[in-house]
Amino acid sequence: MKKETSLQAEIYGELESLRHADNINHLILENISDLVAIHRLSDLRYEYVNSATLKALGYTREELFAQSPLELVHPDDMERVFTRMKDNLPQGVSRDKFRYRRKDGTYAWLKVQGTILPGDGQVPFLILICQDISAEKKLEESLLEAYNEMGRIAQHYSVHGDPGRQAFKWSEMKRQVPPAVNRTEEVLDLALITTEGLNEEHLLNSCCQLIVEKPGFSLAWVGYVLEGPPQKVKPVAYAGLNSGYLAKLNIVLQDPKRGNGPTGQAIRSGQPVVMSNLKTDDAFAPWVKDALRRGFKSSMSIPLQDSNGIFGSLNVYSEQVDGFDAEQQQFLVKISNKLARTLVSLRK
After folding, report:
1. Tens digits of per-residue pLDDT, 73-98?
2. How far apart, in Å, are the Cα atoms of 100 and each of 34, 133, 217, 285?
3. CB 301 within 8 A of CB 324
4. CATH of 7-132, one of 3.30.450.20, 3.40.720.10, 3.30.70.100, 2.40.240.50
5. Sign (positive or negative) of CA dihedral 316, 221, 297, 97
């Protein structure tokens, strides 16, 4: 009898632990800023959405569950979404960006990562972790629209030979470069001369977003050095695969371990720092487990500098070992330098 009572107590204890874990998981999901949705893989119907999803899209839970998720995808994005899911989900993870209809009829731009997970009785579910990138897309579109207008102005004055307008010729020259290669530089070049009305946070997020659109880059983030000891580096903008990674960084420049990673080295030295294999680089030890869980295999950090010195860094992660060849390093250094100059202009 005692044996049976002891076993029951043990079982009840295990059940209570599971309930406690479920409550903690639910609390986390309901308080993170990422949009999280779980779908039945058989018909993609909703099983769960968190509060951030409802807030971003404007629906009640009942209204959202009553609709087919596929009906809310923008018609122009539907074919690509299906293709990406078909090609990538069997490999474990699918990433995409597409528009999703809000309750008011407008569309939100979402950056989405999808993963298949087994459910109860091994019935598979699709879990989507999304970020609303609508503000960054709007900024990007307005900047590029203005950039194209400047190109037309440059062409006009080039034809009419006005020497006072020759400074605009860079526009026409850069327009000959393929857009996919030069898109990030276009945005920053334009921002340097159209800073009025720009929001620093949106500019930083937009820059990070454009960087991770290049193949192989999983995460880009910008960190600022906080004033006074112990000189912590605070993430202020990012794009890409985060999933809580940045919240756990705790980079402290005066700490011999947590200040000796690529970010700390770049800020102290004033030089770009590339770590080609995060798994084997001892300097990255404080962050290696969290990085590998998210598929980060190499990284590059570039200091951001103004007339007063180094105030932060641009940090990029690759999903490949040796993920930063000479061309990519040159590209990121150029982008970070232009970003720093843009920020200086924006703050004047």
Report:
1. 999 988 888 887 777 677 667 788 89
2. 15, 11, 24, 39
3. no
4. 3.30.450.20
5. negative
